[in-house]
Each structure stands twice: as C-alpha cells, then as structure tokens.
Amino acid sequence: MTAHRQPSTVHxxxxxxxxxxxxxxxxxxxxGSYLAEHLLAGGYTVHGLVRRASMFNRSRxxxxxxxxxxxxxxxxxxxxxxxxxxxxxxxxxxDRTSLRRLLKTxxxxxxxxxxxxxxxxxxxxxxxxxxxxxxxxxxGLLEALRDxxxxxxxxxxxxxxxFGLPADxxxxxxxxxxxxxxxxxxxxxxxxxxxxxxxxxxxxxxxxISYNHESPRRGENFVTRKIxxxxxxxxxxxxxxxxxxxxxxxxxxxxxxxxxxxxARMLQARQPGDYVLATGKTCSVRDFAxxxxxELGLELKFKGKGAGETGVRTDTGxxxxxxxxxxxxxxxxxxxxxxxxxxxxxxxxxxxxxxxxVARLMARVDREAIAGLKPETCFxxxxxxxxxx
Length: 389
Ligand code: NDP
Ligand code: GDR
Description:
It is a single chain. Residues 1-10, 67-82 and 376-389 have low confidence and may be disordered. The chain has 2 domains: 17-215 and 252-281, Rossmann fold (3-Layer(aba) Sandwich); 223-250 and 284-334 and 354-372, UDP-galactose 4-epimerase, domain 1. The protein is of the alpha/beta class. Helix content is 32%, strand content 16%. It is built from 9 helices and 15 strands. The chain has helices at residues 30-41, 96-106, 127-146, 182-201, 223-235, 256-268, 285-295, 341-347, 355-370; strands spanning 21-25, 45-50, 86-90, 110-113, 153-159, 205-210, 213-214, 242-244, 250-251, 254-255, 274-277, 283-284, 300-303, 310-313, 319-323. The chain binds NADPH dihydro-nicotinamide-adenine-dinucleotide phosphate and guanosine-5'-diphosphate-rhamnose. Residues 26, 28-32, 51, 53, 57, 92-94, 114-116, 118, 133, 157, 159, 210, 212-213, 219 line the site of NADPH dihydro-nicotinamide-adenine-dinucleotide phosphate.
C-alpha cells in the first residue's frame, strides 16, 4: 500500500471553540487523558467513552472530574454526572450498536478514536482482538459516521508501526506501508480505509501517523515506563532488578502532551489529511535506560552481549537490568524515525521534548511518586511484579 493524495474537497470551517464538542473514544488511556485536558482547556464540551472493567480504570482522568466519584451510572444510556463540560459514557469498541446510539445522542462535532489494543508485542499473542479493535472497529465507526446527518470530523490514531521495515528513512506520509506484526497490519488497514472514506465520501477524516510518545501516564508494560518505574523503585530500595528484551531497539520517542495538541490541530484545520507526528530523533532502549538511571543519580553501565548482557550500577556493582528472551518479539520494527515536516508546515506543530529528555522527565515523576511525594499517576492498585509483556 502507498500513501494516498490529499483530497481536493473543500470542507466547512470548524465551528467556534464554544460550540465544539468532542467524543474521545479511549479517554482513560494515556493519550485520551491528555487530549481531554487539552480540549477542556480550549473550551470544548468533552464526552468520553469508558469500558466496563472489573476495577475502576479512571485513574488518569479522575482529576478532570469536578466531583470524582467511583460510582458509574447503572445504564450506559444515562451518562454519569460529571464536571460541567466532561461527561463519561459506558461503551466498548466491540459494541457497535451502543456506539452508533451514542453518536446520535450526543452529536459531537469531533470524534477522536484513541482506543484499542495498543501493545505491539502482545499483538502476536492476541492477534484477533488486536485486529478487531484496531482495524474492524475503525471501519464500524467510519460507517456509523457516514450515516450521521451532520458531518463529524474524525481523528484516527495511526502508528509508525504501519511502516515496519520501511524502504526510506526518515519516513513521511508517502512512505509505503510494510508492517511486521499484527498490530501494524491492523493500523495499516485502518489508515488506508480512512483515506478511502475521505476521498470516496468527502468525509473529514484524519490519521495521525504517530511515533512513540510517552509520559508519566504511560502504561507499565511499555518499555519506557517499565524502565523509569524500575529505576525509581531500585533507587528507593524497593526493587533489586528488572528484565528487558531488545536493548538495541531504537525509537523516535516524544512527549505525549505535545502529540495530543497536534491531533486537535488536525481536526481544526481547513482540510483533512494524514500527518506524520514524530521528533525526527532516535535513541536506543539502552540509551533511554542510562538516562533514566542517571536522572536518579545512578550511573549505569552495560556489560556482556546478547542474552547475557546486564545493566550494572557502577556505585555498588549490582546487576539491575537483565535480559529475558520472553520480552523479545518474533519480529520487531526497524529503527523507525519520522519526518514531521508536513505537520510543521500545515499545522505549525513542532515537538520540543525528545528521547532521553523524556526519560529524565518520566524518571523524576516516578521517583516522586515512589517516594510518596506525589500520588502515582496510574495503576495504583495493580500488581507491580515484572510481567511477561
Ligand atoms: P493506551 O493503551 O494508553 O490506551 C488505550 C485506550 O483504549 C484505553 O482508554 C483503553 O481503555 C481503551 N480501550 C482498549 N480496548 C477498548 C475497547 N474494546 N473498547 C473501548 N475502549 C478500549 O494507548 P495510548 O493512549 O498510548 O494510545 C492511543 C492510541 O494511539 C492507540 O490506538 C494506540 O495504538 C495509538 N498509538 C499510540 C502511540 C503511543 O506512542 N502512545 C503511537 C502511535 C499510535 P482501558 O483504560 O479500559 O484499558
Ligand atoms: P512499541 O513500544 O512497540 O514501539 O509500541 P514498546 O515500548 O512496547 O517497545 C519499544 C521497543 O522496546 C523494545 N523492548 C521492550 N518493549 C517492551 N514492551 N517491554 C520490554 O521489556 C522491552 N525490552 C525491549 C521493544 O522490542 C520495542 O522495540 C508503541 C505503542 O504505543 C504502540 O501503540 C504505538 O503504535 C507505537 O509505540 C508507535
């Protein structure tokens, strides 16, 4: 698959911010929570879709609610009472009927699709759920939006994983897709489908082809947060060692709050389109870990090779990082780097925080959280043992 030309259809101007309302599907996730903050600060009315979980999954958005309450409404048709401009609704990507009903009821001017199985490594273990949530659910939503009377602007969270093993470096909007895992395949399908709906039906549909973006709200089973939490716990004497997989992997790591601003700009632009969102700089997992430990005053040196490589504290000589082959993937994307010049030119977007700066920022927040100076940003209740993902 190759990139599609941007359509020539002229779209209506965006409504004024006071009239804007957005539905965020995935509001309880890292990006959804920052986007909700961003849109509320911009005067939007925000609706968020939350799914039923056996424990409350709102720790990233509780601070946005006027009267945080952990008790949801009994029925999804009756939204939970919220702060003045934020309303949560029960729903699920796998429940298309309730999604359609919700879209009709709240009639948002913008819809952001930030939900789905977002773990690339796990997509090898649960490929069908991954494709159902990241590919087919996007199709279902596009169809639902197509049937609405009033046009809605739609953001789709695409990923650098669509490029997998890319022909070019850095990648841009015209780089051919070449995914190497089920997650990347699902995102490639959905990205191309968004282009089809944009050009075939003139719908205002945008895909942000985002490279990795991280924050203190990142899930614990992504490598960055695993490292910064591990480093903070080791610093506090609450953990001795943790295991990682591919230390050579290089990623274009940015800072999530900067990325959600670009998502909003895409839907506020005159024309819809696809945009690469990236910093253009990469560092390795090894570099990221070294920076995170250094921020906490711990010098880290890597010794050995392959499965026998270890990360060692130079002050005590203690091994703090080991390699566990279970964290290696059957196939891993190459050293993906993005060229975000189009986003800079068309949206005026240029990220400032990159790679090892992100590591330092996250390590600082996790150190304060572990020391009890600040509440932990997420996953307060969950098991902290090293898991297999
Ligand atoms: P997270 O994993 O932090 O959040 C995913 C969100 O999706 C959560 O709100 C989760 O709910 C929700 N969700 C998952 N399955 C369902 C379902 N069946 N029905 C309803 N909601 C569901 O992801 P991020 O915030 O990091 O990423 C947002 C999107 O952007 C994802 O699609 C991801 O694939 C994509 N992306 C992310 C990048 C990144 O670096 N962060 C880069 C490129 C793309 P719950 O809280 O209940 O689990
Ligand atoms: P990624 O992020 O797969 O790029 O997907 P992740 O943090 O999971 O992996 C980044 C790189 O680190 C290597 N790695 C490990 N990864 C994990 N999770 N755990 C480990 O212990 C470990 N050790 C080394 C991985 O092999 C990989 O090379 C993220 C998600 O946000 C996706 O939703 C998004 O689409 C892409 O970024 C862009």
